[in-house]
Design a protein that fits this description.
With about 280 residues, the protein is of the alpha+beta class. It has twelve helices and eight strands. This is PucR C-terminal helix-turn-helix domain-containing protein.
């Protein structure tokens, strides 16, 4: 494929010696230059196809300094500002991983410093973090777009942003452990440490409590109740929003909550009571 062929399909495509800094274009290495096409001219399927036809010029992925640093105890790469680790889990049974990864990387406005497998179905992306980096809400939209377009099923744990002075290996290792411990239990597509800190750090203590075991046993006797408690907690006790999320009539939800109050003495409309019930499910 030569540039004239690409230019016939995408008249706004152009070549440059340096990779453009603009967030409005997708760029690929192309014959010792950079081929760039405005994002507005491409849909996600076209991005994926071009990424496969124009792979990045990396003779050996393992030579990436971030992969050497994080996976092989290499030297920490030098950088200015901050970076962020993003941890993904994908259902590999029905997904072309190469396609998924290329589409994912091209959806970012910021520079991707490295992308590598943690496990066969888990990946880490090292992102150069700045003011244009996606928020948690924006990343939900990104994953929804990708999953809808290529039929994938993705979850994401967003790590904290770190500077070069931080103990990156230690923080990466712990974030990865948290991600792998919690990803299968979390309902949300995208989650952060703030959202799962309580279950992660308190779980070992809770498992030893006979009182918590009592509540857990009785909660699970009602097949709907555990999901109601989890969803209500995630929505900060908001009855109307929880009913909407669970596709329940508000009065039906209130009936379940009243039943819990009668049987267990927990008023789930009160946050401290709801917290105790939620802890029983961890």
């Amino acid at each position: 494929m030569n540039f004239n062929q690409i230019n016939q399909l995408y008249p706004n495509a152009y070549l440059s010696v340096e990779k453009p800094l603009s967030n409005a274009v997708y760029s690929w290495p192309f014959k010792n230059k950079w081929l760039s096409i405005p994002k507005s001219d491409l849909n996600s399927n076209e991005v994926a196809l071009l990424s496969l036809l124009l792979p990045e010029n990396q003779n050996d992925l393992s030579s990436n300094p971030w992969i050497q640093f994080l996976k092989h105890a290499g030297k920490q790469p030098t950088f200015i500002g901050k970076i962020r680790f993003l941890y993904f889990q994908i259902d590999t049974r029905h997904t072309d991983i190469s396609l998924w990864l290329e589409v994912l990387k091209n959806m970012f406005n910021t520079k991707i410093l490295a992308a590598f497998a943690i496990e066969p179905n888990q990946y880490c992306i090292v992102e150069k973090f700045d003011s244009t980096s996606y928020s948690s809400k924006e990343l939900v939209g990104v994953l929804q777009t990708i999953d809808a377009d290529i039929g994938s099923n993705t979850k994401l744990f967003i790590g904290r942003s770190w500077s070069s002075d931080d103990n990156l290996i230690s923080y990466y290792t712990e974030e990865k452990k948290i991600f792998q411990s919690c990803v299968d239990q979390v309902i949300s597509t995208v989650f952060t440490l703030q959202e799962i800190a309580l279950p992660y750090f308190a779980k070992s203590k809770l498992q030893k409590s006979n009182i918590i075991l009592f509540y857990r046993k009785h909660i699970y006797q009602d097949k709907q109740l555990s999901n109601i408690i989890k969803t209500l907690y995630q929505n900060q006790g908001n009855i109307s929003l929880t009913a909407k999320k669970l596709y329940l009539h508000r009065n039906t939800l209130l009936y379940h909550l009243d039943k819990v109050n009668q049987n267990l003495g927990l008023d789930l409309k009160q946050m401290d009571n709801l917290l105790l019930a939620y802890m029983a499910l961890l």
